[in-house]
Model the fold of this input.
Amino acid sequence: MIEIEARLSELRALGLHQRIRLVSGPQGPHVVLDGKPVLLLCSDNCLGLADHPRVREAAAEAAMRWGVGAGASRLASGTMTVHRRLEERLAGFLRRESALLFGSGFLAAAGVISALARPGDVVFSDALNHAALIDGCRLSRAEVFVYGHADPEHLAWGLAHAQGRAALIATNAVFSLAGDAAPLEDIVELAQRHRVRVLVDESHGLGSVGPGGRGALAERGLEDQVDVILGTLGGALGSYGAFAACDRVMTQYLLQAARTLAFSSAPAPPAVAGALAALALLEDRPRLVDKLHVNAVALRDGLIAEGFDLPRARTHILAVALGEPEPVLRMAEGALARGVFAQAVVPPATHGPASCLRLTTMATHRAEELRAAAPVLAEAARSAGVDPRATSPAVPRQGEYEDEPPEPYAYEAERAGPYDYEQIAHAA
Ligand SMILES: Cc1ncc(COP(=O)(O)O)c(C=O)c1O
Done:
């Protein structure tokens, strides 16, 4: 049995006990934290739609019209018209036949992956996939081949050794930590060659990349070349919930087979209506996506001018790698004391030596305030004992194997406990 007190003490001793802040008011580009306004650089509400007046109104009206909760799962008490409306709009936006709502991105990943893979199958999962995909893999009880981050050669090697058991490739489209993109063309090509299904999580691509913010697949014209596109409604669409976009047969199957849909309450009408309004805003105002990029470039260029080593900004997500967790936590505290709220990404969200400060811009920031944040972050780094010029881009370890690839099925979920920091990012 887990010794709860001992585990909490261990976390505190390791400096990894995360403090969760109390925010007053909405999640705008600035938030009030402990009574003090700070610049928010750690939200996935990248288009700033979570508190947009039209989104708020739509949610409030939906609460009056349909009530606050769906009452049960759709298998129990049916699909509400508001669910159907958002599903149709999402399918149209993503150029797919249909879409299916889930309670959250985590539930969508868990339900879809475990519906598409079963014991005896092999699922191929990028080493830097989001925890939702990782846990979906675990739930499927399939064997999981974790390929090197964005490394199609490693993936090809794994597929070639799967002895006909390959069932699914699961990848983020845009990776949560450093905002880089998956090699989607290679993945689609390999999947077609090996006749394996592909699931792409566009949670960070939606609203950020591609024509009109339709995602990384749309940017490459691949939206109809994968089996399932997942996305959260909790990011660019400023709400809560998630979707799987796919063809009609797959939708029919997921309605029957995805247990997180069948045995979990349907999304709440105000959240669904809010996402609908946010989607309409995104479609009407694609300039929001351009503004997000202008802002990302402003922050990145400011940080580079301060000496930070960063890759070219592709998305609104940037990460400054500092190595060990302690300086990252100190830098985040220092930044906050100076009015900038950034996210320290330390275990269990990442492996110990890959800890970093993750920064996300929003379309609703002003470019000047982002430029002004760069020297503040540099000062916070120095006060944490880190020279900005000694940082490195939080880029992925790629192609680590040479002649001898690692054990193909090295993903042993049962081996690591919840506090095994070396393993937890993927294998816990
Ligand atoms: C890539 C990815 N997938 C899934 C999720 C989970 O989505 P949700 O917050 O709706 O559970 C997130 C959340 O940030 C994410 O970044």
Q: What stands out?
A: The longest helix spans residues 287-305.
